[in-house]
UniProtKB/TrEMBL annotation:
Any Pfam family the entry gives: C2
Keywords, ordered alphabetically: Cell projection, GTPase activation, Guanine-nucleotide releasing factor, Synapse
Domain Rho-GAP intervals: 494-687
Keyword Transcription on entry: no
Domain annotation C2: ranges: 331-460
MF annotations from Gene Ontology: GTPase activator activity; guanyl-nucleotide exchange factor activity
Protein's cellular compartments: Cell projection, Axon; Cell projection, Dendritic spine
Protein name: Breakpoint cluster region protein-like
Gene for this chain: si:dkey-91m11.5
Amino acid sequence: MRKWVLSGILASEETYLSHLEALLIPMKPLKAAATTSQPMLTIQQIETIFFKVPELHEIHKDFYDALLPRVQDWSHQQCVGDLFQKLNLKVKSTKDCKDQPDLLKHTHSSHPDYPLLQDALRISQNFLSSINEEITPRRQSMTVKKGENRQLLRDRFMVELVEGSRKLRHVFLFTDLLLCTKLKKQAAGKGQQYDCKWYIPLADLTFQTIEDCESTPIPLVQDEEIDAMKIKISQIKNEIQREKRTTKGPKAIERLRKKLSEQESLLLLMSPNMAFRVANRNGKGFTFLISSDYERAEWREIVREQQKKCDFSLTSLELQMLTNSCVKLQTVHTIPMSVNKEDDESSGLYGFLNVIVHSASGLKQSLNLYCSLEVDSFGYFVNKAKTRVYRDSTEPNWNEEFEIELEGSQTLRLLCYEKCGNKAKQGKEDGEITDKIMAKGQIKLDPQTLQNKDWQRSVITMNGIEVKLSMKFASREFSLKRMPSRKQSGVFGVKISVVTKRERSKVPLIVRQCVEEIERRGMEEVGIYRVSGVATDIQALKAAFDSNNRDVSVMMREMDVNAIAGTLKLYFRELPEPLFTDDLYPNFAGGIALSDSVAKESCMLNLLLSLPEPNLVTFLFLLDHLKRVAENESINKMSLHNLATVFGPTLLRPSEKDSKISHSSQPISMNDSWSLEVMAQVQVLLYFLQLESIPTPDSKRQSLLFSTEV
């Protein structure tokens, strides 16, 4: 054994690696080709490469001997890397001397060379294991010191906030460190490669609060921009489907797929706004932006569990090798976009999911518990509803029903929170005062199961807690069809002109009472009109208004304000004809598409003033209310665009099954046509919300002034 050789190699791992690269990298692509008569690498070339590392030749002459067979004699599956691994460079076991490499076999464990030799073999194994990347199965771990393995626990594409800019990263969580990488741009035909941006040993990782760091404000993307991206995605999908029915060939489809990929990548980059902050031992912080509290809790749980048992050691060379190995270790290979899905993969559910959260069991102590529901949409998760807080109970029994809109959704997530009324007990993570997550779970939305119109019972088990649910799905075509009420004495499903004439009012009583109650105590409610109210409460209010119950005002005061907002939305949604009327709807959709601002204003105002008087007065009354709601946007998070997104389809969607604005000669899917039509409806309402005032002719001014004061 020549100690000077080992010491020389190990004293400079970088030099050692460069020698190995000089020897191995030129050989990496080599593979025996049964159909090739000429060898891809001559023996002379192999000899030249080999003798670049005389120290290795001295250590083990078998290296040279093993490479002497002519390349054309190799088997079809044989690679150069196989020869090196066959030569016992791979550490198999330190328990059985017969299975150890020759160098270790002849070195006593007490000899000072032994640990040096172990390190040399470990470095060699990690480097050489990537030689036959094309035929080696996906690796599960990297060898580290002491013979342990560095296991990959999870990896995800995430958005990092860097100096106020959003950057797409691929984040790898190992058993002893968190590694943040960036995917390199590669020329066509070349494999993936990663750059290491930063890493934190788990033993040094902390979750930052806003007090711990100089928090950078999260640059919020306007809702209009997000919706514009969604509509652009729907338009491109529509074009792809049309191209598939033509004979223009794959090139046109490939161009559209590229555009789709760009738009979906941009949407996933811009949509998350929930901070997830981590820091190293020196207090240097890094901020990720995610869209789901569920996902944020998952990362924290895995890291905290692993911190109890992790040990860390990493050289700069090992960091480079670890980063290079991520290509083989990764479990998430593509950004979660529809363009990456196969044609036969499910595109998810589009429509409305009714969910009843029944009860929870398995709690070990009495808690103030509530549940939150999230669904995925366009590749990321969005919070859709939450139950009321059930106080001081080990068996909360909510029995609350919610209607959740699905946009290509495949998964329903449920989170159980303990309501922390005492500020001293509240968690303060990522700059937000948060209630404690007690349990979380999810359930796949199976289209085959949910197509059945009956209620489907489910149980989500999580951390010993069981939550019982019932679900029922309705497609958009079925659930959004306007159905006139058979009972004309009520208000729901009855023409607005009939209701106002019966009540001798300009604005229906239900609209005025709901607006008054929301303005009394709901103007600062986060997500007012967006967050679903309890369906049973909404149905109770609907029945009370339909039966002209004089105690309806008392009922409203005792109900959650989201149920009041839900009742108002339901009233407009169930009108047999939209507030903007079936006849004028195509004209509104055409007017909003005009590019000339002067012509657009003239067209839109003339159309608005052409509405029947009950429709016009009711709309202006509602419009003023929505503007007042948006004035509290900093608190309730409801911008004019958010409100237009909620109310646009409700006020404009025509009663006909098929839209009058669809002029395409080619049939398009329900999902694509829906998205394009919704965008027009949202834009119409947003246009009027953004107008400072709506001028009206003198003949109508007195009537309107009187009506809005009612």
